[in-house]
Amino acid sequence: MLVKILDAHPNALIIAIDACLGACENVGCLTLGEGSIKPGAGVKKELPPVGHIHITGIVNFSSLMNMVILQNTRLSLVMKMADTISSGIKFCLWRYYRHL
């Protein structure tokens, strides 16, 4: 699927967004960075790297039982973080296109 997107839109900026696990004190934090991410790495999935830039949301703490932890993550936290990310992207697009 990623190859089809790149073929159809060769100059597109791809923003990868994924949930991840982290330290207890960072739950609820968002990170933004350059480069791709490997989605599913925390639950041992083998997926190709995605994105030119990435946004990750730390939705729960990391432990030896990551799959169980992910299944017990509060949906309200995930939804709040998704709202924040989408609002940030919307604001950046508004700022960019307002000057064209």
Fold and architecture overview:
This protein has about 100 residues and is an alpha+beta fold. It contains three helices and three strands. It has helices spanning about 1-10, 65-70, 75-100, and strands spanning about 15-20, 30-35, 55-60. Strands 1-3-2 form a three-stranded mixed beta sheet. The longest helix is centred in the last third of the chain and has 24 residues, at about 75-100. The radius of gyration is 15 Å and the shape is globular. The chain starts with a helix and ends with a helix.
Q: What characteristics describe this protein?
A:
three-stranded mixed sheet; alpha+beta; about 100 residues
What is the total tally of β strands?
3
**Span between N and C termini?**
32 Å
Cα Rg: 15 Å
Query: So how many helices?
Result: 3
Compressed to H and E, one letter per element, the order equals HEEEHH
Helix content: 25-40%
Largest sheet: 3 strands, mixed
Basic shape: globular
Extract low-pLDDT stretches.
Answer: none
Percent of residues in beta strands: 15-25%
Brief write-up:
37% of the residues lie in helices and 22% in strands.
List the helices and strands and how they pair.
Elements: H1 2-8, E1 15-22, E2 30-34, E3 53-61, H2 66-71, H3 75-98
Parallel strand pairs: 1-3
Antiparallel strand pairs: 2-3
